[in-house]
Design a protein that fits this description.
heterodimer; A: 355 residues; alpha+beta; OB fold (Dihydrolipoamide Acetyltransferase, E2P); 2 domains; 6-stranded mixed β-sheet; 9 helices; 36% strand; B: 266 residues; mainly alpha; MetI-like fold; 11 helices; 2 strands
């Protein structure tokens, strides 16, 4: 896949306040790329810098091998869908959508044809004479998207476009966005604070935390190979266990932990110390019959979730907690709080964190 | 409802009626006496005539002063709306700390007693050797009404989302195109209202005008001068005309506002 946009060592400061610190990423053509972060993490600033509404304090924004830091907004082949839609209240839907073409002095007949085409794409062909105030939130969102699409930008920037919609409509619009992005084949850079939304929509996600990217990757990468403990806890839950190496050979490493000793595969490419944090998801902890690799833990509580149950267990000293998920309720029914169970880790799904 | 509650209701209604009557009686009487004559406090019902109105046409001085006032009003509206918009837009978009000072300067002439504003302008014009004329009056009025025009336009600008102009730029508009196609249509109403208000204020402004006017005269000053030498029916008639004119203006403003509010209600 060819690369379309790159941010290189980009930082942004307002006075003394650091908003973004050394941001690096590359975006491929036709990709649905999501920047995920909590409010105030600086995610909107990234999109505003790409769109040209604000300039980076340091670093370069590179579009197709040209640095575009100083390129004025109207020269950039990107269009933005704003969080508050920003439709022009003095124009009807048709004129709103046709605005970008009118500015370019395209003749009326062509504008009309294109506007009606794009309105059909977003499913609003019968609304062209309506004023923005007469439309629902979801419809306004579609108009805003149509207004961006019609300019045939290379990238569409979406700044939390679904933030103002209620849950039901949000679901519908997510599906709509995903389908339309496939249909029109334009790169989307999407901003959200909603994890589920990001996972559902994106080809790749960049997670922003404390003004920096924690990790960039496909939703599956982020879930199964988190690179930091923050990321391990970010999507779903993860048991983080402090470990020390007892001995190792080329194939496996034997480590000790508060829950007992266990063996993990030795991944030579991984750079780790003798002490590290091991991350294992609650559903990758299995109940087993006692054997030489199993660990004995004490049940603290069992919560019934229907067909499966979740167990919180502690070690012998009760100073470390282990969460176990997806235990068939048939099995958990026969267990009781305060008794001991033997567990093993599904070590092929575990992660090692050296921080 | 009990009987005493009923009485209270009627009493309040009467009181309200009296207050309204007291407020508007002078205006009604002015109109009334532009048509009828009175002798020793008694109305002469047989004396109805349009004469003061027809005579007014031949009363060149009053008409001339009225034309002067309209000229001053119109030029004041044009100047104050353009300058007011410029300052309001600057105040709205600028991050400079100086903008608070700018607002203070704009409001000062409006808040100061008009006598101070008038006098200081007069001294200033003398210092720079600008002879007094209708144009100095226009400058004085513009400075005076600027605060209101500025505030009305600023209020409107502050209701607009910043993303509105950003999206215009984003779709490829130049600064001028964004102003013409997006900003102007959205603040048009506030410009009209500000202009109409500026015109009404300018029309009856007397104190500042008194200091700044040269050999010409504006309508309120002419009336004032005429009253000193005795009442004439033409004064009544011209007041009635202006009353109708300004009422129509106010009605126009009100209808524009209510129409735009209905639009937003959708």
């Amino acid at each position: 896949m060819s690369e379309i946009l790159e941010l290189k060592n980009v930082s942004k400061q307002y006075g003394e306040t650091k908003v973004l610190d050394n941001i690096n990423f590359k975006i491929n053509n036709n990709e649905f790329f999501t920047i995920l972060g909590s409010s105030g993490s600086g995610k909107s600033t990234i999109i505003r810098m790409i769109g040209g509404f604000t300039k980076p304090s340091a670093g370069e924004i590179i579009y197709e091998n040209n640095i575009i830091n100083d390129e004025p907004i109207f020269n950039r082949p990107f269009n933005t869908v704003f969080q508050d839609y920003a439709l022009f209240p003095n124009m009807n839907v048709f004129d709103n959508v046709g605005f970008g073409l009118k500015i370019k002095n395209i003749n009326k007949g062509e504008i009309e044809k294109k506007v009606l085409d794009v309105l059909a794409v977003v499913g609003l062909e019968n609304f062209s004479k309506r004023m923005p105030q007469e439309l629902s939130g979801g419809q306004q969102q579609r108009v805003a998207l149509a207004r961006a699409i019609i300019c045939e930008p290379k990238i569409i920037l979406l700044d939390e476009p679904l933030g103002a919609l209620d849950a039901e409509l949000r679901k519908q619009m997510q599906l709509f966005l995903k389908e339309i992005q496939k249909k029109i084949q334009i790169t989307f850079i999407f901003i959200t604070h909603d994890q589920e939304e990001a996972i559902f929509l994106s080809d790749r996600i960049a997670v922003l935390n404390k003004h920096k990217f924690e990790q960039i990757g496909s939703p599956k990468d982020l879930y199964y190979s988190p690179q930091t403990t923050y990321m391990a806890k970010f999507f779903g839950e993860c048991n983080l266990i402090n470990c020390s190496v007892i001995n190792e050979d080329s194939k496996s490493v034997k480590v000790s932990s508060k829950f007992g000793n266990f063996v993990i595969p030795n991944n030579a490419t991984l750079n780790r110390d003798l002490d590290f944090v091991y991350g294992i998801r609650p559903e990758e902890v299995k109940l087993v019959a006692k054997n030489e690799n199993s660990m004995r833990v004490k049940i603290r509580d069992i919560s019934f979730k229907g067909s499966t149950s979740t167990i919180n267990a502690t070690n012998e000293n009760e100073d470390a907690l282990l969460k176990i998920q997806n235990i068939s309720s048939n099995i958990s029914q026969s267990l009781s709080v305060g008794t001991y169970i033997d567990v093993e880790f599904n070590t092929e799904f575990g992660s090692i964190f050296t921080e | 409802m009990t009987r005493s509650e009923n009485y209270t209701k009627y009493l309040l209604a009467c009181l309200t009626g009296l207050i309204v009557a007291a407020l508007y009686a002078p205006i009604v009487l002015t109109i009334f006496y532009s048509f009828y004559k009175s002798r020793k406090g008694k109305v002469d019902w047989g004396s109805f005539s349009y004469e003061p109105y027809t005579k007014l046409i031949f009363e060149r001085q009053i008409l001339e002063s009225l034309m002067n006032s309209i000229y001053v009003g119109v030029v004041t509206v044009i100047c104050s709306v353009i300058i007011g918009f410029y300052f309001a837009n600057y105040y709205h978009t600028s991050k400079s700390k100086m903008k608070e000072f700018l607002q203070f300067i704009i409001f000062l002439p409006f808040l100061l007693p008009p006598i101070i504003t008038g006098l200081s302008l007069l001294i200033f014009f003398r210092e720079i050797n600008l002879p007094r004329s209708l144009n100095t009056v226009v400058i004085g009025h513009t400075i005076f009404v600027l605060a209101i025009v500025f505030k009305i336009i600023l209020n409107k600008l502050e209701t607009l989302k910043p993303s509105l102009m950003e999206s215009a730029y984003d779709l490829g508009a130049s600064k001028w195109q964004a102003f013409y196609y997006v900003l102007l249509p959205n603040i048009k109403l506030s410009l009209i209202i500000a202009g109409l208000l500026a015109f009404t204020i300018s029309l009856d402004e007397t104190l500042i005008t008194l200091f700044l006017i040269g050999n010409d005269t504006t309508w309120p000053i002419k009336l004032w001068a005429k009253m000193r030498v005795g009442f004439s029916k033409q004064v009544n008639a011209s007041v009635t005309l202006i009353l109708i004119l300004t009422s129509l203006l106010v009605l126009l403003i009100a209808s524009i506002i209510s129409r735009s509010e209905r639009k937003i209600m959708y």
